[in-house]
Structures are given as structure tokens and as C-alpha cells.
């Protein structure tokens, strides 16, 4: 299969594939849609999709804060702000802007309803009156103006479910208008801004990690092989594999997203790991004096199964992400698994042909045939065999402590979880959390119960009042928009605009204001109730408090609704994008546990079938499960929470870490087939695979550590935690696994008898 002719044909096939992919001209497209992390086929997602059809999408807005050190109640400042708002209202994808500059409130008198501006700066007297009213009004202070009066908020409602391209265009125009306005300070926050800046960062990081990974690989290759062909040949193979993978991703219509940043580095280090195994064995055979052509053939024949299995189990680890409910993770898992197998194909098709064409016929023999690595590994093996109890006790203690740490890990994630808290974008969102009650939307669905007639029934409004009090106290939210807030505004209107009347009216007062409800509903800036007036919404904004705290409040909310809200009058349900994001952290973490279980089971089945022993299969799995437990201990120690960005790491780490165990066991089985004793076979396996295991682990760890340079949380934590897991896996494979295999003497003796019979049969046939 790996003779010269077949290998050169494989090289020709690889070139043909490359030409074909180039002719298809894949177009590089970057995208970021955080809704792809929502749990799909979920009841809450379906409910919210129906909710926004009746009302509106809760996060299609851009918050714009205009500031001045002297306070916003300055005619010059307000004129400039009004000019900016007028320009913003004229933009193509702007639906409306809510701000104090144009907001009007009703006043009810004997002649009917009239509307007056809440902020009037026509004269100094009217401006001071507006200032007094606004700074003491609970609906405006800390909502549309900051409590210290230095910032004015404009809420730009953009086109519903705006596309990424249109959102980018709108934000660019908004930013230009603000930049040309010469304001002392201005801040912005919202989905269209976050998505645009995420994509810009994506493009920078994708190019950065692709280039730095290539440089790192060249340095590692130079360090390991110290020859020009030992650097150039693997680099060519890896670039072909990466190129094929990215081309396939783009040709299938998949845009590069936040998860794609990691793919080049992951695939490069996995491919390099396979190549190091091949080239190390190839050079070893050349040093033994084996002719070049025979060395190539034997190298690829001997390692083909082991390399295939390591790539397959790694791909298996990634593919289990398909069983999560988040589209982004599904696609990342499938495409990365595909990329691993594409890299394997590239290694198999290209490497033998290049070795036949460019590698030397022999390499310099070492003066000492035992060599540095063999001496070190021999010392390590003797020490381990002499200190079995110490090794087992150490691994047991660390593992028990890690189990305790796992029990104390909490699930917690944030809206901008992929960025560090000190990032400028996060800082701007936190500015709105501090000054304007929050940047994160919070939505509740309201529905009249079986004893109610419609949402504006007095008894139903009393129940909504209790809910609003709970929301403001528990979520520390900003101003609330709801049917009840509309009624409070009308009560204020029939009390000459007195701020103290912004409260629940008495029944008599309510009867007097009811005739004005229809007009007030039509004048409202938000869609508050359904046409039949039996359903409504309660909408506000909160700070990004994290999913852990949100889950506790949600539990308290459910208890409050059950015990304090009359369900026969009002039914309440938490909904909205914030709820879905918080839920996705919990859902994905649970699904990752199941996915990891599936991966472990499948790898166990493969190992059991390969080595024909379920006990051996268990012993292979144990050194690869323990590093995952240790990783939990590190997460607890470093105060790293479980979330979307860390839950996926366990399955991926297991798929990669198990590779070394498979290499070890494949070589051990080959030694046992020669009729050798278990102890001798273990020693030979340890000495011959130890170097490759250490070198490939150094390569993998170095490659993944590069990811810690990323500003994306998912990329940073993937690099840090998988690197640690791989270090732990090497320790387990080279220290724990040999000890675990020793008690299998009886099984190995039976195997050895069978192997000897097979060897005699082969000799007889030969």
C-alpha cells in the first residue's frame, strides 16, 4: 500500500484535490450570531419565538448615551442632542428612537387629553421645571437620564431581526454621526454593535492564530528534527490539510465564527502529532540501517492503524458536540471532526510520496545507540516500577480532591462571556448597567387567568403591581414598561402630571381614567398588549449579573408567582433572549456531561474490540478520565466556572488525550505478539513510544497554549484547560498505565500462548 508507486499516485491525488478546491473558489465569510448558542428545539425557545411574533424582539435596540460634565439640562447640549436624534431617525434601518428629547406625557383635564413634552428647554423657566420633574420621576431618572444628570439616553429601536450586514451598516452610520457631533462623551451598547465588533475581532484572531501556529510548528519541527526536510515536509502536509478543511467549510456555506478561531491551531497540532510519530519511527529505522524505501513502507504500515485510531477517537470527541442543542457547537463539533479526518487523509496521501522524493537515504547514526531519551525513559520506568504504591496513592489522593472540587463547581456565564471583563466592549456595556439600570433585556409574558376578563382589569393590575415590585427588588432592574406602568402614567395625567401620582390609582380614579386607555395604548412607544387584551408583556433592563445569580432569582420568582400571584387572575412566564442565554449555559453543561459519557463509552467499545478484553478497555480509559477530573480541580482552584465556553472542553480534551494510550497499547500488543513477557513488553513499549508520546504532547500543549493569547473566552479557556489536561494525561499514561497493566499477567499469559501459536503458523506458511 505504501510502496513508491502507490505513494506517488497518492501525492498526485492530493494535488488534484487541491486544484479542484481552488477552482471552486471558496469565499471567506465571517459571522457571529449569539442566538446560535440558544438551546434549539427547546420549549422556552419556541415560546419566545411565538412571543416576539406577537410583540417584538427584545434585543433589537442600540443604547446611546450622550454625556456632558456640566449636566444635560443645558440648552446648547440639548440642541446638539436633538440634531443627532433627528439624523439617527433618518437612517434606513431605524424604526424609532425613544428619548426625553421627543417623549410626551398625557395630561387629563376637563377638556380631554393633551400631551406635553417631558423635557422642555424653550425657556430657562421651563427647563428648570423639566429638570425638577425628571430627576424625581422613577420612570425617567436612572432610565432615560443618569441619576447624576450627566448622561442622556437614546434608545434606538432598529429593524426587527436585522441581518448582520444591515446591522453593521446601521452601526457604522450611527458611529459616524456620533463622531461628527463633537460630544464630550458618548457610549453605545447593543446587539448590532457587539456582533460587528465580534466579527472584526474574529478576523484579526483567525489570521493571527493561523500565522502564529505555523511559526510555532516550524520552530518545533526545527527543534525535533534539526533538518530542512524535517521542517519543510511536515509543513507542506499540514498546510494542505488546513487548506482542504477551510475550503470544505466555506464551500458548504458555513461562515467562520467565534468557534472557528480555534480550528486552525487544533488541526495543525493534531496533524503535527501524527507526523512526529511517523517521522520519528522513520528516522529510527534509517539509523538501524534499513534502506529508505523499506523504512518508509514499514513506518506507515506499522503506524497506520494506531494513527487512524488516534485521529478517529479525536474526531469522535469533537463529533459528540453534535448532540448539544446549540447550533454553533453542533457545527463546530462536526466540522472539526471532519477536519481531523481530512488532516489524516492529507498525512497518508502526501507524506509517503514526499518522503520518497525528498528525504535522505540515511541519517547520521548516534554515537550511543541507547541515546538520551532511552536513558531517561529507562530511569523513569525503573523508578515507577519501584514506587508503585507511591504512584497509586498520589493519583488517588489528587483524584479524590478533584472529585470534591467538581462537586463545588458552579455553572455561571455572562452575556459577553467570550470577552475579558476589561475589554472596551464589556466596559461600555457595564457603563449602561451602572448608569441606566442595565444593558441586558429582561422580558416577562403576562396572560389573564380563567377568572380574569382582560389585562386592564383592576384586579389583574394589582397582581402585575406585585410582580413589578418583585422584579425591581430582586433583579435591581431599571424602569419597567408594562400595562401597569401605562395605567400609572394615566393616573399621573389626571393628577395634573404630579410625579407622586405615578402609582396605582384607587378604584374610583381607575374608572375615571379607563376611557383614555385605548388612546394611551396607541400612543405608546412599545407593543404592550395583544389585540384581545388578554396577553401582555413586562419589559425592563438589568445588569449582566451572570447565569448563576439569575438562576437563583428565577427560582425565587417561580416560588413568588406560585405563592403570591393569583394564578386565576394572572399567569406569568419569564422569557426573552437573556433567559435563553442563561439557560443555554446550564443546558450545554448538562449535555456535555452526556456527550462525554457517550465519547467514553464509544472509545471503550473501540478499545475493547481492538484488544479483545473489556478489562483492558477499562484500564485504558481510566488514565484518560482522571485528567478530566484533575482539570475540574484546576478550574475550582482558579475560580473558573462551568459555562458554554468551558463545558465543551471536557469532550475535546478526552478525544485528544486518549491518543497516547492507544499508541502505547498498540505497541504493547505488538510486543506481546512476539511472545514476550508482560514486564519485558511494557519496558520495550515504554522505551520506544515514550519519546513520541512526550514529543507529541509537547507539541499539542505548545499549540493549545498559543490559544491563551486570544481575547475570546472560549478560545482562551480551551487553550489553557486542554493544555493542562494533556499534561495530566501524559503523567497518567507514563506513570499510572504501566502499573495498572501489570496485574493483568494472567490475561497476558493466555494471550502470549495464542500469539505464539499464531507466530508458529505464520512461520510454517512462510
UniProtKB/TrEMBL annotation:
Q: Which organism is it from?
A: Belliella calami
Q: What is this protein called?
A: MMPL family transporter
Q: Where is the SSD domain?
A: 230-357
Locations listed in the record? Cell membrane
The record ties this protein, via InterPro entries, to: MMPL_dom (IPR004869), Mycobact_MmpL (IPR050545), SSD (IPR000731)
What keywords are assigned to this protein? Cell membrane, Membrane, Transmembrane, Transmembrane helix
**Topology in the lipid bilayer:** Multi-pass membrane protein
Q: Which stretches are transmembrane?
A: 206-225, 232-253, 265-284, 304-323, 335-358, 389-409, 592-611, 618-638, 644-666, 692-710, 716-742
Key word Aminoacyl-tRNA synthetase present: no
Q: Would I find Zinc among this entry's keywords?
A: no
Provide an example Pfam family for this protein: MMPL
Which coarse location class describes where this protein primarily resides?
membrane
Amino acid at each position: 500500500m505504501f510502496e513508491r508507486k502507490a505513494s506517488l499516485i497518492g501525492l498526485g491525488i492530493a494535488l488534484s484535490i487541491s486544484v479542484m478546491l481552488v477552482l471552486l473558489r471558496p469565499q471567506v465569510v465571517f459571522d457571529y450570531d449569539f442566538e446560535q448558542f440558544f438551546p434549539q428545539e427547546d420549549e422556552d425557545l419556541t415560546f419566545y419565538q411565538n412571543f416576539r411574533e406577537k410583540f417584538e424582539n427584545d434585543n433589537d435596540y442600540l443604547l446611546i448615551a450622550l454625556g456632558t460634565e456640566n449636566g444635560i439640562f443645558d440648552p446648547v447640549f440639548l440642541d446638539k442632542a436633538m440634531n443627532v436624534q433627528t439624523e439617527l431617525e433618518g437612517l434606513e434601518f431605524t424604526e424609532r428612537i425613544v428619548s426625553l428629547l421627543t417623549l410626551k406625557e398625557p395630561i387629563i383635564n376637563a377638556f380631554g387629553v393633551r400631551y406635553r413634552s417631558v423635557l422642555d428647554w424653550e425657556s430657562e423657566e421651563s427647563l428648570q421645571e423639566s429638570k425638577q420633574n425628571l430627576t424625581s420621576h422613577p420612570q425617567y431618572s436612572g432610565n432615560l437620564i443618569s441619576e447624576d444628570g450627566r448622561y442622556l439616553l437614546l434608545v434606538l429601536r432598529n429593524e426587527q431581526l436585522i441581518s448582520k450586514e444591515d446591522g453593521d451598516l446601521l452601526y457604522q452610520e450611527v458611529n459616524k454621526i456620533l463622531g461628527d457631533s463633537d460630544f464630550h462623551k458618548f457610549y453605545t451598547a447593543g446587539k448590532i454593535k457587539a456582533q460587528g465588533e465580534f466579527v472584526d475581532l474574529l478576523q484579526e484572531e483567525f489570521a493571527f492564530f493561523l500565522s502564529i501556529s505555523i511559526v510555532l510548528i516550524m520552530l518545533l519541527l526545527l527543534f525535533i528534527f534539526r533538518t530542512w526536510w524535517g521542517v519543510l515536509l511536515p509543513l507542506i502536509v499540514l498546510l494542505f490539510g488546513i487548506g482542504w478543511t477551510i475550503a470544505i467549510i466555506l464551500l458548504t456555506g458555513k461562515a467562520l465564527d467565534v468557534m472557528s478561531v480555534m480550528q486552525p491551531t487544533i488541526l495543525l497540532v493534531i496533524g503535527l502529532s501524527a507526523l512526529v510519530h511517523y517521522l520519528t519511527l522513520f528516522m529510527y529505522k534509517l539509523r538501524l540501517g534499513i534502506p529508505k524505501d523499506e523504512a518508509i513502507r514499514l513506518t506507515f504500515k506499522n503506524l497506520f492503524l494506531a494513527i487512524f485510531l488516534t485521529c478517529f477517537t479525536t474526531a469522535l470527541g469533537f463529533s459528540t458536540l453534535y448532540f448539544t442543542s446549540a447550533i454553533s457547537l453542533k457545527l463546530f463539533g462536526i466540522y472539526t471532526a471532519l477536519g481531523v479526518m481530512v488532516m489524516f487523509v492529507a498525512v497518508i496521501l502526501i507524506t509517503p510520496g514526499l518522503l520518497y522524493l525528498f528525504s535522505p537515504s540515511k541519517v547520521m547514526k548516534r554515537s550511543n545507540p541507547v541515546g538520551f531519551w532511552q536513558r531517561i525513559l529507562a530511569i523513569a520506568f525503573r523508578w515507577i516500577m519501584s514506587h508503585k504504591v507511591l504512584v497509586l496513592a498520589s493519583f488517588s489522593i489528587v483524584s479524590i480532591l478533584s472529585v470534591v472540587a467538581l462537586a463545588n463547581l458552579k455553572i455561571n456565564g455572562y452575556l459577553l462571556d467570550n470577552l475579558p471583563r476589561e475589554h472596551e466592549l464589556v466596559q461600555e456595556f457595564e457603563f449602561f448597567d451602572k448608569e441606566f439600570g442595565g444593558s441586558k433585556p429582561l422580558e416577562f409574558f403576562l396572560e389573564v387567568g380563567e377568572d380574569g376578563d382582560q389585562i386592564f382589569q383592576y384586579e389583574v393590575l394589582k397582581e402585575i403591581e406585585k410582580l413589578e415590585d418583585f422584579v425591581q427588588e430582586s433583579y435591581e432592574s431599571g424602569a419597567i414598561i408594562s400595562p401597569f406602568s401605562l395605567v400609572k402614567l394615566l393616573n399621573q395625567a389626571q393628577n395634573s402630571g404630579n410625579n407622586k401620582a405615578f402609582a396605582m390609582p384607587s378604584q374610583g380614579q381607575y374608572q375615571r381614567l379607563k376611557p383614555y386607555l385605548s388612546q394611551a395604548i396607541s400612543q405608546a412607544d412599545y407593543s404592550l398588549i395583544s389585540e384581545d387584551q388578554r396577553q401582555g408583556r413586562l419589559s425592563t433592563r438589568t445588569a449582566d449579573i451572570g447565569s448563576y445569580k439569575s438562576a437563583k432569582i428565577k427560582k425565587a420568582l417561580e416560588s413568588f408567582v406560585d405563592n403570591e400571584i393569583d394564578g386565576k387572575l394572572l399567569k406569568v412566564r419569564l422569557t426573552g433572549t437573556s433567559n435563553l442565554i442563561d439557560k443555554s449555559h446550564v443546558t450545554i453543561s448538562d449535555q456535555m456531561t452526556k456527550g462525554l459519557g457517550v465519547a467514553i463509552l464509544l472509545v471503550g467499545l473501540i478499545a475493547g474490540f481492538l484488544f479483545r478484553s473489556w478489562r483492558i478497555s477499562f484500564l485504558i480509559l481510566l488514565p484518560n478520565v482522571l485528567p478530566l477530573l484533575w482539570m475540574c480541580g484546576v478550574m475550582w482552584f482558579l475560580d473558573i466556572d462551568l459555562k458554554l465556553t468551558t463545558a465543551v472542553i471536557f469532550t475535546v480534551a478526552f478525544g485528544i488525550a486518549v491518543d497516547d494510550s492507544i499508541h502505547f497499547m498498540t505497541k504493547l500488543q505488538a510486543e506481546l505478539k512476539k511472545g514476550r513477557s508482560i514486564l519485558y513488553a511494557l519496558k520495550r513499549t515504554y522505551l520506544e513510544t515514550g519519546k513520541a508520546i512526550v514529543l507529541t504532547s509537547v507539541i499539542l500543549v505548545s499549540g493549545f497554549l498559543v490559544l491563551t493569547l486570544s481575547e475570546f473566552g472560549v478560545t482562551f479557556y480551551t487553550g489553557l484547560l486542554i493544555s493542562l489536561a494533556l499534561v495530566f494525561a501524559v503523567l497518567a499514561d507514563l506513570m499510572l498505565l504501566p502499573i495498572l497493566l501489570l496485574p493483568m499477567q494472567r490475561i497476558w499469559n493466555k494471550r502470549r500462548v495464542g500469539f505464539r501459536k499464531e507466530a508458529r503458523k505464520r512461520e510454517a506458511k512462510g
